[in-house]
Amino acid sequence: MVQVRPADVDRFLKKPDPAIRVVLIHGPDDGLIAERAAAFARAVTGDSADPFSLVRLDSADIAEDPARLADEAHAVPLFGGMRTILVRYAGNRSINPSVEALLEAPPTDSWIVIAAGELRKDAPLRRLCEQNQGAAAVACYADSARDLDRIIDEELVAAGLAISSDARALLQSLIGADRLATRSEVRKLCLYAADAGKIGVDDVRAVVGDASTFAVDEAIDALALGEAAEFDRSFRRLVASGTPGFVIAGAALRHFGFLHLARSAHDRGASPKAVVAGARPPIFYQRQPLVERQIAQWPLARIERALAILNEAMVESRLRSAITDEVIGQALILIASVAASLRRGRAA
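^ thats the sequence. predicted structure below, dont judge the formating
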């Protein structure tokens, strides 16, 4: 069985094992799959100028012609050197017979890299590659905070830039869903700040973070803290700038869903600070004290009532599409008034 451990992936991809000729790269992060497949191809072919050193196939091509994969893998390179056969696996048709044939008679001048999406543990292709000594399986999951730090540092070094700790924390909270998208955003940020020498929070907000996202967060915090006047101003400003009311309501639903989980953990003994620190995705550090106050302020029963109000408002706004923003706004103001009464109760 060759199932590459996360700690060994980079080393495995940089120095291919000649005994392993079939590599399955799979998981939910398409960007990371593409990056790792490209890294493996570079390790195999080096700086080869041969346009045939990389052959791309779809799993449908192989399913239609099962011998196609073996023919490509065993073809003698025209200009010598090594070749990579990159197969994009869609999962709708099996290519196992073709892969099994290669494992029985492995090529000497090529490697086969199969890029797949997320595969269950019992998926036939994944089982085949994990259980055969001539194959390997590499899982690609969302980057951890440590991975994001490494990517940020790599791009900063390449650009000759520094970053403040606040900006790094904000940047980490905004990236990480997809490896290629993450690198693209960090490179774009470095290009934006190239003349400044150091990246600050304002740079991250301007380039990576959608300004409306920060404005929505500020509105939701005013809502949950019972600052009704501030929320009303924020809501009207967002709607006037083009943010639909249902987007703000959706953000409120997600936030109160988080508060429900957080308050449940708090009632079981966890501190609000610990709950917020462990939130996924991470909460930007400047918001953390505000969210901690909300967890302490809102009892479970009231959070459930707020969720019910939001759900009812979402349904009604669809039925009364001509006045969607008004319907949403009234529901949110009602929640803000509940929060204000809770805050006064705590103060008393």
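DSSP finds 17 helices and seven strands in the chain.
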